[in-house]
Amino acid sequence: MSKRPQLTPRERMAIPRAKMPEQDPAARATNFREVPLGLTPEQAMREAERCLNCRKRPCVAGCPVGVQIPEFIALVAEGRFVEAARLIKETNVLPAITGRVCPQEVQCEGNCTLFKKYGGVSIGALERFVADYEREHGLVEIPPKAEPTGKKVAIIGSGPSGLTVAGDLIKLGHEVVVFEALHEPGGVLVYGIPEFRLPKDIVRAEVDYLVRQGVKFEMNAVVGMTYTMDELFDELGFDAVYIGVGAGLPRFMGIPGEDLNGVYSANEYLTRSNLLKAYLFPDYDCPLPPAKKVCVVGGGNVAMDAARTARRLGADVTIVYRRAREQLPARAEEVHHAEEEGIHFQLLSNPVRIIGEAGRVVGMECIRMRLGEPDESGRRRPIPIEGSNFNIDCDQVVIAIGSAANPLLTKTLKTVKLNKWGYIEVDKNNRTSDPRIWAGGDIVTGAATVISAMGAGRIAARSIHAYLMGLPQPGEEGAEGEQ
Amino acid sequence: MAGRIIENEEVVPNVRRLVLEAPQIARRARPGQFIIVIPDEVGERVPFSLADWDADAGTITAFYLEAGVSTLKLSRMQPGESVHALVGPLGRPTVIKKYGTVLVGGGCYGLGAMYPLVRAFKEAGNRVVALMEGRTSYVIYNEEKVREVADEVIICTADGSRGIRGHVKEAFEALSEEGRKFDYAHFVGCTYMMMISSKATEPYGIPTVVSLNALMVDGTGMCGCCRVLVGGETRFACVDGPDFDGHKVDWDQVFSRLAAYVPQENLAYQYLKCREAGSVRASPVREEVRP
């Protein structure tokens, strides 16, 4: 491969930011295929040339797992795509996934020197490109593995944090078994994020990559019910356990009418569609009845996913959010995609009642809101405007206002300390109050991102390894160098 | 392998006994718990009450009625085949205590599911009266198993062809009129039976528990599909139940939610039959996204 042509910073800044081709909005609003189509090799190499290779590496500082961003981009610029993919995988086991679902605009790309004036280097698109290139060309190789240590680790939950821990520990020579409550591995990547944002064959490929490295997956195993924690340690001989079960308890609003037919938690709505393929009903058995008008309550990424799913199922969709547009917690790209697909936004509005007839939803009564002083989260508090109630006609309501800690497993743990909201308390190494048990992801932080869950998994994996090998814990004196 | 079918036999018209290999579930199962089964790779997640388990043999038993596309598919599976997925045990176990005289009433699939309850209440030192209902004499099944563990078995049939004429409710009322006293009642089976039986015990002040059969998706509290109103509070049948106070359940809402997908259930059933008859094929657009 040719050496990278030496461009001046001015020349690099003059390159326009790559625009990833996307499925046409009108067409994609009726199918479940992926929306962004990926960069071409030429586009990727050109985009990589935009990187100024700054000495301060602000992008890396913005990455929860510390991907070696300028280094992989330099490889892309030279057309060394597979090497770039392998370099990313040293710190991020799921690049095809994070390249698609990370909020890069507030992480690596948001930190990029070019961000304000020219738009950050499209790090996510490049990450996605090299990971796809490696996989689609059949060039994925099994990384070398350390000598078997004879230690066994159980991972509870096969979501992004669990998969990260599994990937890190298998390379270090430990035996790894992942227990998953559902029938498909991937956690939120499979039941939560829709096909049009993250194709499920990519998740399967990533899981398959771990299987080929020797990670064992046990599906349909609900730890807390099918197995007890004591059983894992005492009878199945695990030396350490990582809990990455996600938050997993849907929040409802507590308003009248929420138990009507046609009212769904976002978890249920998305699980039916994504995991159980209800969008292919009746070829698949799980139904998600078509609605004419769907209201999605909430403004986060899950709300956008639910709204865009409802749109694809043929509905006219309105997102009802209590704050203003600037406060929408969803990624700008997701909001933009939703708008392009014809989804309406009813902002500064909050439901007060869901209206039913014969047990079914026929509408939702909302009240208009105005923004007051900032609250403890720093966002301006929405205040209802007395007497401003109005009705929206709808025959389905999806509630996407976040989730809480699911107690199914945690209530069975006697030795693991929880905080007052039921989330697991951990130290800086993601270790719980039981020295044999680590935890990370949403069951520690509450609902967050795929990549922050992976970051937690990474930290825990290092600590678990140190514990299993009798080494000092990361951060302690004599510990192996931090990243 | 967990999920392998050992037995799938029709015991009375339209009711089958399903015995599955499931060593881990058999080890952990407690009375009142359930399993979730996905029949094939395009199937949905369907809960079934556990009717028995054998930790030594590593098997579990459930009874089911062919009522829709999932149970139709299940009914056609042969011993040796495996279901696509099997999860359990799920749900809170029934609270088993010594109450004195316990009435356990069952019908439909509940004639199977009542067995572990009767056994457990008996083991806890209760005098257990088992009320087994059917629309007619020849649809009563599992009687010999229940007889092994109950102090008394009373049969009731809607057509009066055997035992007391009527359902569990009428049988309970007849017994009460005779002066029989019960300290606790537990009903499992079709929703209507559980509702009217609970309403019958209420005037007598008998603590009454029902094992609800809500629609479910994940079965671990993640989705809220199975929510029920109990004493004005929303509860999840999968993790807070399936047992609830029969006097506090909002029955209208239970019926309403159970009927949420009736049109789709009918469509799926017809569609499967049509496809098998060769009159429809999956569309090509759909084929491309199939696994």
Secondary structure: elements and pairs:
The complex is a heterodimer of chains A (483) and B (291).
Chain A: H1 9-14, H2 25-28, H3 41-48, H4 58-61, H5 69-77, H6 81-89, H7 95-101, H8 108-111, H9 115-118, H10 123-136, E1 152-156, H11 160-171, E2 175-179, H12 188-191, H13 200-213, E3 216-218, H14 229-235, E4 240-243, E5 248-250, E6 263-265, H15 266-275, E7 293-297, H16 301-312, E8 316-320, H17 332-340, E9 344-346, E10 349-357, E11 360-374, E12 380-384, E13 390-393, E14 396-399, E15 403-405, H18 407-410, E16 437-439, H19 442-445, H20 450-469
Helix pairs in contact in A: 3-5, 3-10, 5-6, 6-10, 7-10, 11-20, 15-16
Chain B: E1 5-12, E2 15-21, H1 23-28, E3 34-38, E4 46-49, E5 52-54, E6 59-65, H2 69-75, E7 85-90, E8 101-106, H3 110-123, E9 127-134, H4 143-149, E10 152-157, E11 164-165, H5 168-177, E12 184-188, H6 191-201, E13 208-211, E14 227-230, E15 233-236, E16 243-245, H7 251-258, H8 262-277, H9 284-289
Parallel strand pairs in B: 8-9, 8-12, 9-10, 10-11, 12-13
Antiparallel strand pairs in B: 1-2, 2-6, 3-4, 3-7, 5-6, 13-16, 14-15
Helix pairs in contact in B: 3-4, 5-6
Describe the structure.
The complex is a heterodimer of chains A (483) and B (291). Chain A has 483 residues and is α/β, with parallel strands linked by helices. Chain A has 3 domains: 9-136, Alpha-helical ferredoxin (Fumarate Reductase Iron-sulfur Protein, Chain B, domain 2); 152-248 and 404-469, FAD/NAD(P)-binding domain; 252-401, FAD/NAD(P)-binding domain (3-Layer(bba) Sandwich). Chain A has 20 helices and 16 strands. In chain A, the strands form 4 sheets. Chain A has a 5-stranded parallel beta sheet, with helices on one face. In chain A, strand 11 (360-374) and strand 12 form a beta hairpin. The radius of gyration of chain A is 23 Å and the shape is globular. Chain B is of the alpha/beta class and 291 residues long. Chain B has 2 domains: 5-90, Translation factors (Elongation Factor Tu (Ef-tu), domain 3), CATH 2.40.30.10; 101-258, Nucleotide-binding domain of ferredoxin-NADP reductase (FNR) module (Rossmann fold, 3-Layer(aba) Sandwich), CATH 3.40.50. Chain B is built from 9 helices and 16 strands. In chain B, helix 3 packs parallel to helix 4 and helix 5 (168-177) runs parallel beside helix 6 (191-201). The interface between A and B is large, with 46 and 49 residues.
